[in-house]
Structure formats: structure tokens, C-alpha cells
Amino acid sequence: MRELVYYVAVSLDGFIAGPQDQFDAFLIEGDHMEGINAEFHDAIPTDIAAHLGIPQSAQRFGTVLMGATTYSMGLPDMPSPYRHLEQIVFTHHPLGTAENLRATDEDPVQVVRALKQQPGADIWLCGGAQLAAQLRDEIDRLVLKRQPLLFGDGVPLFAPGSYAPQRLEHVRTVSFESGVSLTEYARRR
Q1: Distance CA 86, CA 101 (A)
Q2: Label partner for 63 (CA 20 to 30 A): which of 26, 82, 84, 120?
Q3: Is residue 24 packed enough to be buried (19+ CB in 10 Å), middle (13-18) or exposed (0-12)?
């Protein structure tokens, strides 16, 4: 069965973007990039991967889920940022048409449960905090690219809410000279 993987960059103080939704402080150069890109090449925007000569196979991820704010970060430069994947954007507003892109106002939990029953590669939860909070109980893996920076405020990993504590199992941590670490957790079932 397909898994829902929340794969995201996060600051040391737990933010996936700064106070004005900025994410340009995250390190995109350094020794961490080669290892992360080799494993998570499907999570690189299609045009950027092509420019870098990184092949994308849709073997790790076959579908990417985004909230409207996360999707809009690349507009208008990339109206279909991950067109090598099935892209689903959860929004109440029409987005227009783009390759492999579906906008929906359906319940994210129901969409994910249906996707998990289909054959294919895993489902990547790209962001943001509101969508992650809605899908919290559906997340099978949490893969954090911990960045050596502090925002102080901004978009949290999960939107605030009343949650029952959930314990995740540590799978691995890989540390890089750049100060970035990749940490993976799996849900206890």
C-alpha cells in the first residue's frame, strides 16, 4: 500500500517558512544536496531537475499534495511545478489548467485514503501547515530536512490545534557538514 510521506524542510525552531511565507533562507547548496537529491529526486521541481540533469522516475513519489499557499509560491514562474507527478492542490478557488494538475475542494483525508488504495509510488505531502494538520493521522512517514537556521516565527510544521499525542519511531538520521540533517520517522501502527 502507498504511504503518505510528509517530506519537508524545517528550521531548528520548527517552521517550514518564515513570517511572510519566505523559504529562501533554506540552504540549497552544500554537501547535503547530492545525497538528498539522489534519494528524493522526485521532489525537485520538474524544470529545475531537467536543468540540473537529474532524472526523475516517479519511483519514490507518484503524487504530490499541496495546499493553495504552497502551490502559489512558485506562481507564475511554474504553473505546474511537479508535472512529472500527479499534482493535487487543495483549494476552494479555481487554478486554471496545467499538466498533471488537479485542484480540488474535496476532503483531504478522503482523497488520501483513496490514493493509498491505488497502485503506485508513495504520496508526497509537500505542505503546508494547514494541510499537514488535516492529514496528521494519515501521515505514515515524516522526513525532515532540518536546516541550521532560526526563523523565530512563521509557518509551523503543523498548524496549531488540539491533537492527541502520537509517538513516531525513529528510522534514521543523516547529518551533513552543511549543518543540515535528514531525519526520518515512521508511524507506529
Answers
A1: 6
A2: 26
A3: exposed
Residue 125 contacts residue 111 (beta carbons within 8 Å): no
pLDDT digit string, tens, across residues 71-128: 888 766 777 899 999 999 999 988 878 889 999 999 999 999 999 999 999 999 998 8
Q: What is the percent of the chain with per-residue pLDDT over 90, rounded to a whole number?
A: 78
Evaluate whether residue 165 is within a structural domain: no
Residue 130 lies in a domain: yes
Query: What per-residue confidence (pLDDT) applies to 127?
Result: 87
The angle subtended at Cα 49 by Cα 9 and Cα 27, nearest 5°, is: 30
**Residue 40 burial by Cβ neighbours in a 10 Å radius (0-12, 13-18, 19+):** middle
CATH number at residue 84: 3.40.430.10
Region 144-149: mean pLDDT is 97
135 is in which domain, residue-wise?
Answer: 4-27+61-160+183-187
Whether cis (ω within 30° of 0) applies to the bond prior to 76 is: yes
